[in-house]
Amino acid sequence: xxxxxxxVARVSYATxxxxxxxxxxxxxxxxxxxxxxxxxxxxxxIDNLEVPILDGSGQPYVELLRAAxxxxxxxxxxxxxxxxxxxxxAGPKRISILPSDxxxxxxxxxxxxxxxxxxxxxxxxTPERYAEEIAPARTFGFSxxxxxxxxxxxxxxxxxxxxxxxxxxxxxxxxxxxxPMNAAATRRWI
Length: 190
Hints:
The protein is α+β, with helices and mostly antiparallel strands. 21% of the residues lie in helices and 22% in strands. The longest helix has 10 residues, at 59-68. Residues 179-190 have low confidence and may be disordered.
């Protein structure tokens, strides 16, 4: 199945691709790594309904990619070129794509949680910066959403050692966190 927007089936909590009745969930970490590390031609074999979540970040995929190495082809590449601004809004959520010759990323999020709150990121994404600053970011969720997500067929591979689980006051599984439990550190890694 090509990793193309043509095959996006749903994006609620995870990015799922579907083609000819086959659904692959949780593609976002692997596809993020491929794109940000400059991989535009890869073949991935999966024998499950979900891309493995590994430690809940993109870092293991970055390390595997670096260990395997990359090969350049002489074939001319085809790209989707953004020629004018595109925005999509749904309630308080918005995503915009603007024309640029560089991968510039600006993100703002807000969660009503004492350890998360408002977070912002503004950077030019290069393979080096991605590997250092974005790939280590961990998957996180809230304990009060777990049943709903499982009922949606999501988080099949999630466990308390590969995702950060917040309850109303703090973190349920601080041992899974590779950072000290304070608001400033949490904002850097989720």
